TrEMBL record:
Residues 34-53 bind DNA. The keyword Amino-acid biosynthesis does not apply. This is AcrR family transcriptional regulator. Keywords: DNA-binding. It holds the Pfam family TetR_C_16. PROSITE patterns: HTH_TETR_2. The keyword DNA-binding applies. Gene3D superfamilies: Tetracycline Repressor, domain 2.
Length: 202
């Protein structure tokens, strides 16, 4: 799910701030990103950033909204989802169009107390809820399982940098992850299995 680059035009300086913020939040967690660093990249005073977005939280929310304007789940067929998700997970770098890695932005700030609520909100709104609707499920567990798989692998690959994941062959890894997602999608009794699991744990 790639994201189109931030375009210039009306409000060009604001867009440049947003673009710089996206780059920072892709590389570091919410708590480690400073507005002064973003302002310095753009060549504006930090007060201008505050006027444009209200606060760091407001800027981060805008970043998540921009990242959410990706090739959305609703634009993909069920058959296209496994390959698209796997390809995004192992995407190594931005292409010439300045594509954004939305999942990486979410993952890097998952543990932040301030950003956690926003991250959870966007995960549900942009990924889990649309997947549940596409599957026609009454229970979101199947959709949440797919996103959990992607987040877990992204954490191991991009944050922990485990060699077994970060140094794995990209082509074969993409195929394996795509098959795993296909398996989850083709599991039509997930709602019953989820309810059964809850009963066992009760």
């Amino acid at each position: 799910m790639s994201v189109k680059k931030v375009v210039r035009g009306e409000g060009e300086t604001r867009q440049r701030i947003l673009k710089a913020a996206i780059e920072h939040f892709e590389k570091a967690s919410y708590d480690d990103v400073g507005l002064r660093d973003i302002a310095a990249d753009v060549g504006v005073d930090v007060a201008y950033v505050h006027r444009s977005f209200g606060s760091k939280e407001g800027l981060f929310r805008e970043v998540l909204l921009t990242a959410g304007k990706a090739e959305s789940v609703s634009e993909l067929t069920v058959d296209e989802l496994p390959a698209a998700f796997a390809r995004q997970l192992f995407q190594r770098e931005h292409d010439a169009d300045g594509d954004i890695e939305p999942l990486l932005i979410l993952v890097r700030s998952l543990t932040s107390r301030k950003a956690g609520g926003l991250v959870s909100e966007r995960l549900s709104a942009e990924l889990i809820d649309p997947l549940q609707a596409k599957f026609g499920d009454s229970d979101p567990f199947r959709a949440a399982t797919i996103i959990s798989l992607l987040i877990g692998l992204s954490v191991m690959r991009n944050l922990l940098k485990l060699p077994s994941v970060s140094e794995a062959d990209v082509i074969s890894s993409e195929k394996l992850v795509a098959r795993a997602i296909e398996g989850i999608i083709n599991s039509t009794d997930t709602s019953q299995a989820h309810e059964s699991g809850k009963n066992v744990l009760a």
